[in-house]
Specification:
By secondary structure, this protein is an alpha/beta fold. It contains ten helices and ten strands. The strands form two sheets. The chain has an eight-stranded mixed beta sheet with strand order 3-2-1-4-5-6-7-8, with helices on both faces. A two-stranded antiparallel sheet has the order 9-10. Helix 6 links the parallel strand 5 and strand 6. Helix 5 packs parallel to helix 6 and helix 6 crosses helix 10. It is globular, with a radius of gyration of 21 Å. The N and C termini lie far apart (about 80 Å).
Length: about 325
Amino acid sequence: MNRYLLPLSVLGTVAGGAVLLRDYVAGGSCPSKANILGKTVIVTGANTGIGKQTALELARRGGNIILACRDMEKCEAAAKDIRRETLNHHVNARHLDLASLKSIREFAAKIIEEEERVHILVNNAAVMRCPHWTTEDGFEMQFGVNHLGHFLLTNLLLDKLKASAPSRIINLSSLAHVAGHIDFEDLNWERREYDTKAAYCQSKLAVLLFTRELSRRLQGTGVTVNALHPGVARTELGRHTGMHSSAFSSFTLGPIFWLLVKSPQLAAQTSTYLAVAEELEGVSGKYFDGLKEKAPAPEAEDEEVAQRLWAESARLVGLEMSRGSSVRGQPLDE
C-alpha cells in the first residue's frame, strides 16, 4: 500500500499545481465584494455563456437584472435558472435582437418607459466568425451586431443612464482587436472578398474606438464606460470557428485549451469587476484584460479614427447628430 502513496502524492501535487496555474492564467475572480442592491442592470446576450454568468454574478449582489436576448425561450429559461440559483426574483427576460434596428429601438423605448433607472449596461452580446451574413438592415453581421447594435442601444439609453448617475457602461471587446483595422471605404464588406476573421477583428476594434469616444463625450455626466477582453472562454460564441471540429485537434490541443480557455464563470469576472468595483468609480475610457488595465492597440487610441467612426456609425443607424457632442435617438428620415 505504501508504494502507492508517493505516486499518489506526486499526482495530487501536480494536479493541484495545474489547477492553480490555470486559475492564474485565467486572471482570477472579481476581488470586489460590493453589492448593487436595488440597482437596475441590463446584460445583452445573457441567455448563455459569459452573459448569463455575468447576469448571475450581478443577481447574487442584489441587482435588478434584465436579460436582453434574441431567443426568448432560452432567455426565459436563463432567467429562471438565475432566479433559482440566486433566490433573487428581480431577474427578467426582455426581447432584443441586435441585428435589427427596429428591435433595438423597441427595446430601448420599453426600458425608458418602464424602468425608473438604469445603473449598469453590459454590452455583452456578440457574433464571432460567422459566414457572410447580413443583419435585417443590410449590415455585415459581425460589425452590425458587435458594434452598430450596441452603439445604437447605448445612445438610446444615455439619457436614462445619465439620470441614474453614477452609472456604468461595460463593452466587451477582444484581444482580437489588435489585428483589426477600420476600413471606412468598405465597413460592410461589400467590395472585398469576405474574410470572417478580419471582419470579427474590425468589429472588436470598433467597440474600443466607440468606448474611447463615448468616454470623451460623457465627461462630467457621472456615467463611465470601459471595455474589456474577457479571455477565451468555452461558450457558444466560437461555434463557427471549427476549433473542436476534429478529434485530432481536440486530442492534441486539449491540454492547451484546458489551461488557456476559461469557463464562462471565470470569463465573467472582468465584466462583474467593472460593474461593481468601488475603486473603479470615475474610471472611464479604459481597456481591461482580465482584472488589469492594459494599453490597447495604437489604432484603438486614435482620436481622429474614433470620431470618424462615431459619425459614420450614427449615419448608418439613423441617429441625428445634435449640436455639441450628444446624439439624439431619432431616425434621420423622420
